[in-house]
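Is this the right way to post structure tokens for a design question? Let me know if I should format differently. Anyway, here goes:
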């Protein structure tokens, strides 16, 4: 699947089969995140790949539907970088697109992660000076939503709003 096709197909997937994801595919997904745009090339990220069922079960405290994910990627950022949030968002989007291109479903879980950030940092051994931007569950999709996006004509403006 080419990049534009993956961008068009990508949706937030919250239902998985529970099947495992090969390590090579997870490395490809992380590599896509690592290659994201980053302010002043600071690359303020680390990624924790969780595949053990017990740890996935513990992380599902953020959202119960994550229990059947094949893996959960914790996106760890260095907040000393001026652009850590933007850089992390770029990395996550690359990973979401890469997941789609490889035939997996994924979802950005940021809103459910932040309230439990300290709990998850302790659970995952994340240093205190780092931030847990989000958890990204990835899995073999049990379904693929068909939700439509707004048409281009509705959101595009030329020269001025």
């Amino acid at each position: 699947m080419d990049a534009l096709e993956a961008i068009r197909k990508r949706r937030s997937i919250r239902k998985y089969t529970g099947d495992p994801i090969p390590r090579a595919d997870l490395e490809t997904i992380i590599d896509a995140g690592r290659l994201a745009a980053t302010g002043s090339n600071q690359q303020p990220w680390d990624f924790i790949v969780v595949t053990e069922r017990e740890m996935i079960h513990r992380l599902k405290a953020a959202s119960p539907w994550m229990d059947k994910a094949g893996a959960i990627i914790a996106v760890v950022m260095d907040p000393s970088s001026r652009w850590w949030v933007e850089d992390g968002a770029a990395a996550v989007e690359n990973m979401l697109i890469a997941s789609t291109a490889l035939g997996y479903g994924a979802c950005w879980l940021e809103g459910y992660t932040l309230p439990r950030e300290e709990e998850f940092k302790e659970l995952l051994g994340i240093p205190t000076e780092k931030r847990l931007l989000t958890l990204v569950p990835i899995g073999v999709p049990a379904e693929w939503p068909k939700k439509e996006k707004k048409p281009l004509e509705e959101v595009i403006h030329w020269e001025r709003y």
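Format looks fine. Someone answered above. Worth noting: The CA atoms of residues 60 and 66 lie 5 Å apart. The chain has one domain: 3-155.
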